[in-house]
Amino acid sequence: MKKFAIILLGLILVMAGCGTKNNSSSSTTTKTIKVGTTTSEVPTWTLIQKLAKKKNINIKIVRFDDYVQPNLALNDGEIDINAFQTVVYFDDFIKQRNLKLSAIGTTNIWPMGIYSKKYKKVSQIKDGDQIVIPKDPTNLGRALLLLQKAGLITVKKGFTGKGGLENIASNPKHLKITAVDAAQTPRGMDDAAAAVINCDMAINAGLSPVNDSIFREDASNKAYINIIAARTKDKNDKTLQEIVKIYHSKEVTDFIKKHYKGAAVPVVKPVSYLKDYKQN
Fold first, then answer.
1. What is the percentage of the chain residues whose pLDDT exceeds 70?
2. Which of 161, 184, 186, 279 could potentially form a cystine with 180 if both were Cys, beta carbons 3.0 to 4.6 Å apart?
3. DSSP H/E element including 7
4. Which architecture, in CATH terms, is 113-216?
5. How far does Cα 56 stand from its chain's mean position?
6. Which of 161, 107, 122 is nearest to 138 (CA)?
7. Are the beta carbons of 101 and 74 closer than 8 angstroms?
Protein backbone atom coordinates (compact mmCIF):
# COMPACT_ATOMS: atom_id res chain seq x y z
CA MET A 1 0.00 0.00 0.00
CA LYS A 2 2.83 2.36 0.91
CA LYS A 3 4.55 1.61 -2.41
CA PHE A 4 1.28 2.29 -4.29
CA ALA A 5 0.85 5.63 -2.49
CA ILE A 6 4.36 6.71 -3.49
CA ILE A 7 3.73 5.79 -7.14
CA LEU A 8 0.38 7.62 -7.09
CA LEU A 9 1.98 10.73 -5.60
CA GLY A 10 4.66 10.60 -8.27
CA LEU A 11 2.03 10.46 -11.03
CA ILE A 12 0.19 13.44 -9.54
CA LEU A 13 3.39 15.50 -9.43
CA VAL A 14 4.23 14.60 -13.04
CA MET A 15 0.74 15.56 -14.20
CA ALA A 16 0.90 18.83 -12.27
CA GLY A 17 4.24 19.57 -13.87
CA CYS A 18 2.81 18.95 -17.34
CA GLY A 19 -0.11 21.27 -16.61
CA THR A 20 2.19 24.11 -15.56
CA LYS A 21 4.27 23.73 -18.73
CA ASN A 22 1.19 23.93 -20.96
CA ASN A 23 -0.11 27.10 -19.26
CA SER A 24 3.29 28.74 -19.52
CA SER A 25 3.51 27.80 -23.19
CA SER A 26 0.02 29.08 -24.02
CA SER A 27 0.72 32.45 -22.38
CA THR A 28 3.61 33.05 -24.79
CA THR A 29 2.06 31.57 -27.91
CA THR A 30 2.93 33.58 -31.01
CA LYS A 31 0.04 34.34 -33.34
CA THR A 32 0.73 34.80 -37.06
CA ILE A 33 -1.21 37.49 -38.91
CA LYS A 34 -1.04 37.97 -42.69
CA VAL A 35 -1.35 41.61 -43.73
CA GLY A 36 -2.21 42.53 -47.32
CA THR A 37 -0.93 45.91 -48.44
CA THR A 38 0.56 47.82 -51.37
CA THR A 39 4.21 48.62 -52.05
CA SER A 40 4.07 52.14 -50.62
CA GLU A 41 2.87 50.85 -47.23
CA VAL A 42 5.51 48.11 -46.90
CA PRO A 43 8.06 50.30 -45.03
CA THR A 44 5.44 51.12 -42.38
CA TRP A 45 4.37 47.51 -41.98
CA THR A 46 8.00 46.40 -41.76
CA LEU A 47 8.33 48.60 -38.67
CA ILE A 48 5.02 47.34 -37.27
CA GLN A 49 6.23 43.80 -37.91
CA LYS A 50 9.25 44.49 -35.70
CA LEU A 51 7.20 46.12 -32.92
CA ALA A 52 4.57 43.38 -33.00
CA LYS A 53 7.14 40.71 -32.14
CA LYS A 54 7.32 42.21 -28.65
CA LYS A 55 3.62 41.38 -28.32
CA ASN A 56 4.12 37.81 -29.58
CA ILE A 57 2.56 38.67 -32.93
CA ASN A 58 4.26 37.42 -36.08
CA ILE A 59 3.23 39.62 -39.01
CA LYS A 60 3.65 38.36 -42.55
CA ILE A 61 3.42 41.06 -45.22
CA VAL A 62 1.65 40.13 -48.46
CA ARG A 63 2.12 42.71 -51.21
CA PHE A 64 -0.54 43.52 -53.81
CA ASP A 65 -0.28 45.72 -56.89
CA ASP A 66 -3.93 46.60 -57.39
CA TYR A 67 -7.01 47.68 -55.43
CA VAL A 68 -9.19 44.62 -56.08
CA GLN A 69 -7.31 41.53 -54.92
CA PRO A 70 -6.56 42.63 -51.32
CA ASN A 71 -10.27 42.68 -50.41
CA LEU A 72 -11.04 39.45 -52.25
CA ALA A 73 -8.09 37.73 -50.57
CA LEU A 74 -9.27 38.97 -47.18
CA ASN A 75 -12.81 37.77 -47.77
CA ASP A 76 -11.50 34.36 -48.91
CA GLY A 77 -9.32 33.94 -45.81
CA GLU A 78 -5.99 34.15 -47.65
CA ILE A 79 -4.95 37.08 -45.44
CA ASP A 80 -6.17 38.26 -42.03
CA ILE A 81 -6.28 42.04 -42.51
CA ASN A 82 -5.46 44.55 -45.23
CA ALA A 83 -4.40 48.18 -45.28
CA PHE A 84 -4.39 50.07 -48.58
CA GLN A 85 -7.74 51.79 -49.22
CA THR A 86 -9.87 54.78 -48.32
CA VAL A 87 -13.00 54.23 -46.29
CA VAL A 88 -15.20 55.46 -49.15
CA TYR A 89 -13.60 53.00 -51.59
CA PHE A 90 -13.92 50.20 -49.03
CA ASP A 91 -17.59 50.85 -48.32
CA ASP A 92 -18.44 50.95 -52.02
CA PHE A 93 -16.40 47.82 -52.81
CA ILE A 94 -17.89 45.60 -50.12
CA LYS A 95 -21.39 46.80 -51.01
CA GLN A 96 -20.92 46.00 -54.70
CA ARG A 97 -19.34 42.59 -53.99
CA ASN A 98 -21.47 41.72 -50.96
CA LEU A 99 -18.41 41.01 -48.79
CA LYS A 100 -18.53 40.54 -45.03
CA LEU A 101 -15.64 42.83 -44.15
CA SER A 102 -15.35 45.65 -41.60
CA ALA A 103 -13.03 48.58 -40.96
CA ILE A 104 -11.22 48.11 -37.63
CA GLY A 105 -8.81 51.05 -37.58
CA THR A 106 -7.62 54.22 -39.31
CA THR A 107 -4.17 54.66 -40.84
CA ASN A 108 -3.37 57.70 -43.02
CA ILE A 109 -4.64 60.10 -45.63
CA TRP A 110 -2.75 59.86 -48.92
CA PRO A 111 -3.75 62.95 -50.92
CA MET A 112 -4.50 62.31 -54.59
CA GLY A 113 -2.61 64.53 -57.02
CA ILE A 114 -2.44 65.77 -60.60
CA TYR A 115 0.89 65.02 -62.29
CA SER A 116 2.34 66.09 -65.63
CA LYS A 117 5.54 65.71 -67.62
CA LYS A 118 4.53 68.59 -69.88
CA TYR A 119 3.39 71.27 -67.48
CA LYS A 120 4.50 72.83 -64.20
CA LYS A 121 1.12 74.37 -63.37
CA VAL A 122 -2.51 73.34 -63.83
CA SER A 123 -3.18 76.68 -65.52
CA GLN A 124 -0.86 75.65 -68.38
CA ILE A 125 -3.12 72.77 -69.44
CA LYS A 126 -4.44 73.59 -72.91
CA ASP A 127 -7.73 73.29 -74.75
CA GLY A 128 -8.29 69.72 -75.94
CA ASP A 129 -5.56 68.15 -73.79
CA GLN A 130 -5.99 64.60 -72.55
CA ILE A 131 -6.26 63.88 -68.81
CA VAL A 132 -5.96 60.32 -67.49
CA ILE A 133 -7.86 59.37 -64.32
CA PRO A 134 -8.52 56.10 -62.41
CA LYS A 135 -11.65 54.27 -63.55
CA ASP A 136 -13.00 52.55 -60.42
CA PRO A 137 -16.17 54.41 -59.32
CA THR A 138 -14.95 55.97 -56.06
CA ASN A 139 -11.52 57.02 -57.32
CA LEU A 140 -13.04 58.28 -60.57
CA GLY A 141 -15.42 60.45 -58.59
CA ARG A 142 -12.57 61.56 -56.36
CA ALA A 143 -10.56 62.52 -59.46
CA LEU A 144 -13.44 64.56 -60.90
CA LEU A 145 -13.78 66.46 -57.63
CA LEU A 146 -10.04 67.13 -57.68
CA LEU A 147 -10.20 68.40 -61.27
CA GLN A 148 -13.01 70.70 -60.18
CA LYS A 149 -10.94 72.06 -57.29
CA ALA A 150 -8.13 72.63 -59.77
CA GLY A 151 -10.50 74.76 -61.86
CA LEU A 152 -10.47 72.48 -64.90
CA ILE A 153 -14.08 71.24 -64.84
CA THR A 154 -17.26 71.52 -62.81
CA VAL A 155 -19.40 68.59 -61.72
CA LYS A 156 -23.17 68.37 -61.52
CA LYS A 157 -24.88 69.84 -58.49
CA GLY A 158 -25.38 67.24 -55.80
CA PHE A 159 -22.60 64.99 -57.08
CA THR A 160 -21.52 62.81 -54.15
CA GLY A 161 -18.28 61.55 -55.66
CA LYS A 162 -19.68 58.29 -56.97
CA GLY A 163 -20.37 57.73 -60.64
CA GLY A 164 -18.87 58.19 -64.07
CA LEU A 165 -17.89 60.90 -66.52
CA GLU A 166 -21.56 61.73 -67.08
CA ASN A 167 -21.33 63.73 -63.84
CA ILE A 168 -19.25 66.42 -65.53
CA ALA A 169 -21.42 69.54 -65.85
CA SER A 170 -18.98 71.73 -67.75
CA ASN A 171 -15.62 71.20 -69.43
CA PRO A 172 -14.56 74.64 -70.70
CA LYS A 173 -11.20 73.45 -72.02
CA HIS A 174 -12.77 70.50 -73.84
CA LEU A 175 -10.43 68.14 -72.03
CA LYS A 176 -10.36 64.52 -73.17
CA ILE A 177 -10.76 62.71 -69.87
CA THR A 178 -9.81 59.04 -70.12
CA ALA A 179 -10.46 56.52 -67.33
CA VAL A 180 -7.97 53.64 -66.89
CA ASP A 181 -7.00 51.17 -64.17
CA ALA A 182 -5.52 53.05 -61.22
CA ALA A 183 -2.24 51.15 -61.57
CA GLN A 184 -1.93 52.43 -65.16
CA THR A 185 -2.39 56.14 -64.39
CA PRO A 186 1.34 56.88 -63.95
CA ARG A 187 2.00 55.50 -67.45
CA GLY A 188 -0.67 57.84 -68.74
CA MET A 189 1.73 60.73 -68.18
CA ASP A 190 3.77 59.55 -71.18
CA ASP A 191 1.03 60.33 -73.68
CA ALA A 192 -1.49 62.54 -71.88
CA ALA A 193 -1.02 66.13 -70.79
CA ALA A 194 -1.63 65.13 -67.18
CA ALA A 195 -2.76 62.26 -64.99
CA VAL A 196 -4.69 62.10 -61.75
CA ILE A 197 -2.83 59.54 -59.66
CA ASN A 198 -3.49 57.97 -56.27
CA CYS A 199 -0.67 58.69 -53.86
CA ASP A 200 0.53 55.12 -53.43
CA MET A 201 0.55 54.53 -57.18
CA ALA A 202 2.61 57.70 -57.60
CA ILE A 203 5.14 56.49 -55.03
CA ASN A 204 5.30 53.07 -56.70
CA ALA A 205 6.12 54.85 -59.96
CA GLY A 206 9.00 56.73 -58.34
CA LEU A 207 7.17 60.05 -58.06
CA SER A 208 7.22 62.36 -55.06
CA PRO A 209 3.61 63.31 -54.25
CA VAL A 210 4.77 66.49 -52.54
CA ASN A 211 7.35 67.66 -55.09
CA ASP A 212 6.16 66.21 -58.40
CA SER A 213 2.42 66.89 -58.33
CA ILE A 214 1.17 70.11 -59.89
CA PHE A 215 -2.00 70.07 -57.77
CA ARG A 216 -2.98 68.06 -54.66
CA GLU A 217 -5.94 67.41 -52.41
CA ASP A 218 -5.89 68.81 -48.92
CA ALA A 219 -5.62 66.22 -46.16
CA SER A 220 -8.81 66.99 -44.26
CA ASN A 221 -11.50 64.92 -45.99
CA LYS A 222 -12.68 62.02 -43.81
CA ALA A 223 -13.82 60.06 -46.87
CA TYR A 224 -10.21 59.69 -47.95
CA ILE A 225 -8.85 58.34 -44.68
CA ASN A 226 -7.32 54.92 -45.23
CA ILE A 227 -8.36 52.04 -43.03
CA ILE A 228 -7.33 48.62 -41.76
CA ALA A 229 -9.96 46.05 -42.73
CA ALA A 230 -10.73 42.59 -41.35
CA ARG A 231 -13.42 39.97 -41.78
CA THR A 232 -16.48 41.12 -39.86
CA LYS A 233 -16.46 38.02 -37.67
CA ASP A 234 -12.91 38.91 -36.56
CA LYS A 235 -13.33 42.66 -36.05
CA ASN A 236 -13.08 42.43 -32.25
CA ASP A 237 -10.18 39.98 -32.24
CA LYS A 238 -7.70 41.09 -29.56
CA THR A 239 -4.64 40.42 -31.71
CA LEU A 240 -6.00 42.52 -34.57
CA GLN A 241 -6.93 45.32 -32.18
CA GLU A 242 -3.40 45.19 -30.78
CA ILE A 243 -2.04 45.71 -34.30
CA VAL A 244 -4.24 48.81 -34.67
CA LYS A 245 -2.80 50.13 -31.39
CA ILE A 246 0.72 49.56 -32.69
CA TYR A 247 -0.13 51.41 -35.92
CA HIS A 248 -1.34 54.36 -33.83
CA SER A 249 1.75 54.37 -31.59
CA LYS A 250 4.03 57.39 -31.51
CA GLU A 251 6.92 55.38 -32.93
CA VAL A 252 4.91 54.46 -36.04
CA THR A 253 3.32 57.89 -36.59
CA ASP A 254 6.72 59.57 -36.22
CA PHE A 255 8.15 57.13 -38.77
CA ILE A 256 5.35 57.87 -41.26
CA LYS A 257 5.91 61.62 -40.98
CA LYS A 258 9.67 61.26 -41.47
CA HIS A 259 9.71 58.53 -44.12
CA TYR A 260 6.93 59.79 -46.39
CA LYS A 261 7.77 63.48 -45.99
CA GLY A 262 4.19 64.72 -46.23
CA ALA A 263 2.96 62.20 -48.80
CA ALA A 264 1.05 60.40 -46.05
CA VAL A 265 -0.63 62.11 -43.11
CA PRO A 266 -1.18 59.88 -40.03
CA VAL A 267 -4.74 59.69 -38.70
CA VAL A 268 -4.92 58.43 -35.11
CA LYS A 269 -8.67 58.18 -34.69
CA PRO A 270 -11.16 55.43 -33.76
CA VAL A 271 -13.24 53.89 -36.54
CA SER A 272 -16.32 55.66 -35.15
CA TYR A 273 -14.74 58.93 -36.35
CA LEU A 274 -15.51 57.87 -39.94
CA LYS A 275 -19.26 57.41 -39.52
CA ASP A 276 -20.37 60.77 -40.93
CA TYR A 277 -17.86 61.14 -43.77
CA LYS A 278 -18.86 62.80 -47.03
CA GLN A 279 -16.98 62.67 -50.32
CA ASN A 280 -16.45 66.21 -51.58
1. 90
2. 184
3. helix 2-27
4. 3-Layer(aba) Sandwich (3.40)
5. 24
6. 161
7. yes
